[in-house]
Specification:
single chain, 418 residues, alpha/beta, Molybdenum Cofactor Biosythetic Enzyme, Chain A, Molybdopterin biosynthesis moea protein, domain 2, Molybdopterin biosynthesis moeA protein, domain 3, 4 domains, 6-stranded mixed β-sheet, binds adenosine monophosphate, binds magnesium ion
């Protein structure tokens, strides 16, 4: 019998890496891919900026009115003793009034209308009365009130977005407001992936005894789609040394990243390790986590390699924790860890010390308005239903044991790739 490497008191396996150590190690080996393309802004949602966006103009370009009312020159009551002004014209949005406004004059102005020369303040029409083309201000605004200044939103030459930023829907509007029609972005990483296993059948074929349908390629497809990369789906590869070797060599010529599922344990049909010893530089790690303990990471030629375990939940957790940050960094984006928040466990959560657990949970708002969470029943690494029913991971730290109902726990809401 082999001696256990686990500490009998803490349960910690000294030959294992912690999740954080594994992520750090992976990120050390990943550099962004320096290749670019210029795309029309509509095609840029979710893409990563390869340059800073610097505004070529002031936004708004000229001072304009925030309200419907009258533009005039605000002067102190000593130089102008009455509140009456002669209305000398109108400024519409897009149709400026192009003459100077004297001390006793005002211009009717609409929201977005350019403030005429010499005027500096807009009185809203609700605070005025008009008689015979004479404006009387009933309630005086402060100097500059209701005026949007030139460059108030964005100044000319201001950096509005930085390299590495992931373009959002709001950014599209922002960039359009600068008059820019296209952007330089990083090219998307190319990711090749396949499933390994003699038992795996593709959808459409009949299951013989012992067969199961391949589900990992579908969850991987979905996560890669959300990660916004170019995908190369290489199907199912049988558990043979030659088959796996040929597939990996082919993948290396086509992709920046290779992901496989299955065959990374030490079973008799687990060939990934043998092949990689011959054609790659790959480390096989035990990560102190559940699910997803065995993990392979390294390189084959110029491609990064991730060997995820075969169990369907392990694939999703492993992708979320390790592959997703790597793809983020590779794609040129500033890496941001997924948001972790605190929720109250609404029932007791079972946990053994010695490993970080990513239990699948349902978060919701309790009657008192606080965020609460509970696990989705059976937490086996093969139970994909636990993922399907959940909307977050409950992250239980390495050394923690059972969490009592009512205690605060850390959760990661599904958002980016799940
Ligand atoms: P392995 O890591 O190859 O030992 O596989 C672990 C478990 O996951 C086994 O029960 C496999 O049948 C299952 N499995 C492996 N690959 C897939 C897949 N692509 N889809 C569904 N189940 C899988
Ligand atoms: Mg297998």
């Amino acid at each position: 019998m082999t001696k256990s490497t686990k500490d009998p008191i803490t349960g910690y396996d000294k030959t294992s890496l912690s999740v954080d150590e594994a992520v750090e190690n992976i990120l050390l080996h990943i550099q962004r891919i320096e290749s670019f393309e210029v795309l029309p802004i509509r095609e840029c949602i979710g893409r990563i900026l390869a340059v800073d966006v610097v505004s070529p103009i002031n936004v708004p370009p000229q001072a304009n009115s925030a309200m419907d009312g009258y533009a005039y020159k605000h002067s102190d009551p000593i130089t102008k003793s009455n509140n009456q002004y002669k209305i000398i014209g109108t400024a519409f949005a897009g149709k400026p009034f192009d003459a100077k406004v004297g001390q006793d004059e005002a211009v009717r102005i609409m929201t977005g209308g350019v403030i005429p020369e010499s005027a500096d303040t807009v009185v809203i029409q609700e605070n005025t009365s008009i008689f015979d083309n004479i404006l009387e201000i009933m309630k005086r605004p402060e100097l500059g009130e209701n005026v949007r200044l030139a460059g108030e939103d964005i100044k000319k030459h201001e950096t509005v977005l930085q390299r590495g930023h992931k373009i959002t829907v709001a950014d599209l509007g922002l960039i359009a407001s600068l008059g820019m029609g296209d952007l330089k972005v990083y090219k998307r990483p190319k990711v090749a992936f396949f499933s390994t296993g003699d038992e795996l059948k593709s959808i459409g074929s009949k299951l013989r005894p012992g067969d199961i349908y391949d589900s990992n390629r579908y969850t991987l497809f979905g996560m890669l789609k959300k990660a916004n990369v170019d995908q190369i789906d290489m199907g199912v590869v049988k558990d043979t040394y030659e088959g796996i070797k040929a597939a990996l060599i082919d993948a290396e010529t086509r992709a920046d990243v290779i992901i496989t599922s299955g065959g990374v344990s030490v079973g008799d049909a687990d060939y990934i390790k043998d092949v990689l010893a011959d054609i790659g530089k790959v480390k096989f790690w035990k990560v102190s986590m559940k699910p997803g303990r065995p993990l392979a990471f390294g390189s084959i030629g110029n491609a990064h390699f991730f060997g995820l375990p075969g169990n369907p939940v392990s694939v999703m957790v492993g992708f979320h924790q390790f592959v997703s940050p790597a793809l983020t960094k590779l794609s040129g984006a500033d890496y941001l860890r997924p948001l972790r928040i605190t929720a109250i466990a609404s029932e007791t959560i079972r946990k053994r010390p010695g490993r970080t657990e990513f239990q699948r949970g349902v978060m919701s708002q309790g009657a008192n308005g606080h965020l609460q969470v509970k696990p989705t029943g059976d937490q086996g690494s093969g139970i994909l239903m636990s993922m399907s029913r959940s909307n977050c991971f409950i992250v239980l730290p390495l050394q923690s044991s059972d969490m009592k109902a009512g205690s605060p726990v850390t959760i990661i809401p599904f958002s980016e790739v799940l």
